[in-house]
Design goal:
The complex is a heterodimer of chains A (117) and B (112). Chain A is an all-beta fold. Chain A is built from no helices and 11 strands. Chain B is globular. Classes of the chains: A mainly beta (117), B mainly beta (112).
């Protein structure tokens, strides 16, 4: 496997369910990101991890809980979501994160299409 | 403050004709600028980047962009559109601590 992978690619969940999204990067990067992409809205940065430490939380509701056990893996735990949380969730990685000096380009996974019913 | 404006939400060109996707930015810092492309049901792929080196940047698939500080622009161009270029394109500006801002995207349609 190369690049950034995300599983599952599609997820349908009820509002009372608990599920997790997984992201894995095979690029040797030290920073990982979660983004939300909704129709007709700009891409929203949700969380940033640098060297496994969370360095950014863009006022994301607590029903979204990220976890970064190591520099290669990133999870997004979901619980009691709302229908408006339905979106494409994109994971990305880069050599070093925002605020670490030089700005590096990000590499994106294919995304998880989440539908909350 | 930092912002990016993609001036056209949709652009339609005929195959073989030039492509111009417009992007204007504002930033309190010396920005880095990127263009990404997203094909349907796929993640974003980096096309090219500007990080304060040459102002004319060449990317993949024949795309290029020119950084014009006086006009605060970073427009994306390609001399000849191909059917496979049909996708959504995002202009991104980064600068300062923990700031990355995506444009709202431009959907490119290529007519055969």
């Amino acid at each position: 496997e190369t690049g950034v992978t995300q599983t599952p690619r599609h997820l349908v969940m009820g509002m009372t369910n608990k599920k997790s999204l997984k992201c894995e990067q095979h690029l040797g990067h030290n920073a990982m990101y979660w983004y939300k992409q909704s129709a007709k809205k700009p891409l929203e940065l949700m969380f940033v991890y640098n060297f496994k430490e969370q360095t950014e939380n863009n006022s994301v509701p607590s029903r979204f809980s990220p976890e970064c056990p190591n520099s290669s893996h990133l999870f997004l735990h979901l619980h009691t979501l709302q229908p408006e949380d339905s979106a494409l969730y994109l994971c990305a990685s880069s050599q070093a994160g925002l605020g670490q000096g030089r700005i590096y380009e990000q590499y994106f996974g294919p995304g998880t299409r989440l539908t909350v019913t | 403050a930092q912002s990016v404006t993609q001036l056209d939400s949709h652009v339609s060109v005929s195959e073989g004709t030039p492509v111009l996707l417009r992007c204007n930015y504002s930033s309190s810092y010396s920005p880095s600028l990127f263009w990404y492309v997203q094909h349907p049901n796929k993640g974003l792929q980096l096309l090219l980047k500007y990080t304060s080196a040459a102002t004319l940047v060449k990317g993949i698939n024949g795309f290029e962009a020119e950084f014009k500080k006086s006009e605060t622009s970073f427009h994306l161009t390609k001399p000849s559109a191909h059917m496979s270029d049909a996708a959504e394109y995002f202009c991104v500006v980064t600068g300062g601590y923990q700031k990355v801002t995506f444009g709202t995207g431009t959907k490119l349609q290529v007519i055969p």
